[in-house]
Amino acid sequence: MNQAVILAGGQGKRMKAPIPKPMFKVLGEPMLEWVLKACENADLSRICVVTGYEAKQIEDYLGDRCRTALQAERLGTGHAVQQTIPFLQEDTDGSTLVLCGDAPFIDSETIADSLVRHEQEGNAVTVITANVEHPFGYGRILRTDSGIAGIVEEKDATDAQRQITEINSGCYWFRTADLLTLLSKLTCENAQHEYYLTDTIAIALHEGLRAGAYCSHNPDVVLGANDRKGLLTLNTAARNAVLQQHMANGVGFTCTDGIIIERSVQIGAGTEILPNTILRGNTVIGENCVIGPNCVIEDTIIGNNVTLNTVQAYQSEIDGNVKIGPFVHIRPNSHICSGAQIGDFVEIKNTTVGEHTAIAHLAYLGDSDIGKHVNIGCGCVTVNFDGIKKSRCVIGDHAFVGCNTNLIAPIALGHHAYTAAGTTVTTDIPDYALAIDRGVLHVKEGYTLKKFANRSKKETNENE
Questions:
Q1: Mean pLDDT in residue range 179-195
Q2: Residue 392: exposure state from Cβ atoms within 10 A (0-12, 13-18, ≥19)
Q3: CB atoms within 10 A of CB 445
Q4: What string of H, E and C letters represents the secondary structure of 405-448?
Q5: Quick one: which H or E segment has residue 169?
Q6: Which of 207, 224, 295, 327 has the fewest Cβ atoms surrounding its Cβ within 10 A?
């Protein structure tokens, strides 16, 4: 069986945070996750992740998803792979792919195609490479007519070798049985006293084994990050790649300033995304929508012909032909049905808003089931929490909820029922009824004259 080993033990000191380097995020996902998904999409299900610095963070993130091996001392890439020898020995018939957990742009096509080349050429080791415009700092690939002669590092290269643009990505296919042999012959006889995985190529050639290289069509496979500046570069490259893909699919962008779209998001043709909009998670947006400006949408399903202006929506569903915003918060488990309109400064939580219902402004509706063609006036609140438990309100079709109405859950407002402005409803209201709460109005004549007189007298005493 073919399998993968992912090296994820790095600390990333220059990141200046107590997080393993592969756990720093690119476009909302840890770099390690990008590598894992590339492996899984290439049908590599048997994976071992080598941990090191703050190993528990990675172990907790992975759960039972794959195996782990601990590199207690960081003594080089070869030493890291040596920690997986028990894993490798369990299945020696196929090949093993070694990847870097902090190089997120390895892709499944490169993995699959390089494996084909590896097997066709009968290589003991196949280096995945890329041609880049500026190869400074990378190991150069020295090719021969029958394969490669080795990898020369920047500091050891001649002037002629520095002109080579094909560089080592740090990813390798090995025949698993050969990898076990090569690992046993690594030494740390170098200035750093570390075991380098690149030394396996020279050892393989010395042993009469064949070493080859596969040059990826994706030059970004070599990109990694050693500091925050490098991490920003990765995020910028990933963001632009996602935007380019959406544009190719018919999504419009007048300006891409502040737009971040995670790669899991789906958007229909004809939709326009306006500046300062962030789309996350398993969000799906239909066709011919206008999203933004200033929206944050996460794990939300949105239908066709929807307009969202300055809206934050989480783990909810918004049907087609809905208009929302500005300054609206849709909290989890909400469903906004077709044709609804929600205006400024409205918060919806765990609530269904029926078809063609209007909530114009300044309202909180939580834990409620609202029918169709309902009108919710300004300042209305469903009072869903009594300090111990939360209860639901039900508002029937065609109801009219007057301004500043408080609905004290649990209550039901009937079909075509009305509430007068300022009413506090504490009991169920039947169909076609009007709920009106008018307490006794007390008028105290001369109140303000007395108040102002007292204040003037106090100010005079203080000034004396």
A1: 92
A2: middle
A3: 7
A4: CEEECCEEECCCCEECCCCEECCCECCCCEECCCCCCCCCCCHH
A5: strand 166-175
A6: 207
Alpha helices in 217-292 (DSSP H): 228-248
Using alpha carbons only, give the angle 75, 79, 82 rounded to the nearest 5 degrees: 155
Distance from C-alpha of 351 to C-alpha of 428, rounded to nearest angstrom = 19
User: Given this model, what pLDDT does residue 460 score?
Assistant: 64
* 3-state per-residue secondary structure call for 122-141: CCCEEEEEEECCCCCCCCEE
Side-by-side strand order, sheet with 335-336:
266-267, 284-285, 301-302, 317-318, 335-336, 352-353, 368-370, 393-395, 411-413
Instruction: Please give the span between the terminal C-alpha atoms of the chain, in angstroms, as a whole number.
Output: 95
Query: 3-class SS at 271?
Result: coil
Report pLDDT for 255: 95
Residue bearing tokens 């999504």? 251
Domain ranges of the chain: 3-222, 228-435
How far is the CA of 41 from the CAs of 34, 61, 294, 401, in angstroms?
11, 19, 33, 52
Distance CA 320, CA 178 (A): 58
Strands 311-314 and 328-330, how do they pair? Answer: parallel
**Token pair 């782990």: residue:** 68
Taking the C-alpha atoms of residue 323 and residue 328, their distance in angstroms, rounded to an integer, is: 11
Whether the full predicted model's pTM is greater than 0.85, yes or no, is yes
Amino acid at 221: V
Q: Alpha-carbon distance 158 to 152, whole Å?
A: 9
Phi, psi of 244 (to 5 degrees): -60, -40
Q: Determine contact, residues 81/99, Cβ cutoff 8 Å.
A: no
Q: Would you state the CATH architecture of domain 228-435?
A: 3 Solenoid (2.160)
Catalytic residues: 361
Instruction: Tell me the per-residue pLDDT of 364-395, one tens digit each, with 9 for 90 and over.
Output: 999 999 999 999 999 999 999 988 999 999 99
Q: At 200, list the tokens.
A: 């396996």
Does residue 172 contact residue 179 with C-beta atoms inside 8 Å?
A: no
CATH number among 3.40.50.40, 3.90.550.10, 3.90.79.10, 3.30.950.10, domain 3-222: 3.90.550.10
CB 198 within 8 A of CB 140: no
CB half-sphere exposure, 16, CA atoms < 13 A = 3
Burial class, 461, CB count within 10 angstroms (exposed 0-12 / middle 13-18 / buried 19+) = exposed
Predicted confidence at residue 459, as pLDDT, reads 65
Q: CA-CA distance, 72 to 49, in Å (whole number)?
A: 13
Q: Give the containing element (helix H, strand E) for 334.
A: none
Q: How far is CA 376 from CA 161, 208, 328, 347, 380, in A?
A: 73, 81, 15, 12, 7
pLDDT at 403: 97
